[in-house]
Design brief:
232 residues, alpha/beta, 5 strands, 12% strand, globular, Response regulator transcription factor, phosphoprotein, Sig_transdc_resp-reg_receiver, DNA-binding, transcription regulation
């Protein structure tokens, strides 16, 4: 991504929102293009300002962060913004719902400034999960129950039959938290080839983010909880 990262900040609590905006505006390479106090305003501002990254509060009265994330990604022109969800505790079922809906990652509200800026940069780049071990722990905690019949009313996970064997291999490694560079080294292919496989996989499965691919890998049983950490 060239130039500054354009960020939209969404939080229903004014002091938290103001603090985030102030921190981001003081950071080099980041431009705050708007701030919203609820999900409906976030959807409207995202369409108007076309941010690269949306910092999205997950629990808000009215339209929550899950619904706002789904709507923003469904309505966005390419390239769609990457949504970074803000939460007060890490094993949050709302956050899991947002990752299923296409959010690119999540961040605890009590994280320090350096971690926030690192998360915005990582999500803006899009080539790796931010905090992959934490993301995997969250997905593992909820994937089993969501995949059970009647366990969740959201659409069932996609069929992996459309993928080639190499695309399945790449998807498994993404679910283990590996970066494109890690996957390229593991499979003896170039990073460009990894990106091609990933882009084709996401297109075939109608996925919006790398984190969503992790959710799919667990929900379909491609990767099982507790079995994905070897070597990565």
């Amino acid at each position: 991504m060239t130039g500054s990262i354009k960020v939209l900040v969404v939080d229903d609590q004014f002091l938290i929102r103001a603090g985030l905006v102030g921190l981001l505006r003081a950071a080099p390479g980041i431009e705050v293009v708007g701030e919203a106090g609820d999900g409906d305003e976030a959807v409207e501002l995202a369409a108007r300002t076309r941010p690269d990254v949306v910092l999205m509060d997950i629990r808000m009265p009215g339209t929550n962060g899950i619904t706002a994330t789904e709507t923003i990604l469904a309505q966005a022109a390419d390239p769609a913004p990457r949504v970074l969800v803000l939460t007060t505790f890490d094993l949050d079922e709302y956050v899991y719902g947002a990752l299923r809906a296409g959010a690119s990652g999540f961040l605890l509200k009590d994280s320090g400034p350096e971690r926030l800026l690192a998360a915005v940069a990582a999500v803006g780049a899009g080539d790796a999960l931010f905090a992959p071990s934490v993301t995997r722990r969250l997905v593992e905690a909820f994937a089993r129950q969501a995949a059970e019949p009647g366990g969740d009313e959201v659409r069932p996970p996609p069929d992996l039959a459309a993928l080639t064997s190499r695309e399945v291999e790449v998807l498994k490694l993404i679910a283990r938290g590996l970066t494109n560079a890690d996957i390229a080294e593991r499979l003896y292919i170039s990073e460009a080839t990894v990106k091609t496989h990933l882009n084709r996989t996401m297109s075939k499965l109608d996925l919006d983010s790398r984190a969503q691919a992790v959710v799919v890998a667990y929900e379909t049983g491609l990767v099982t909880p507790g079995a994905g950490g070897t070597g990565g």
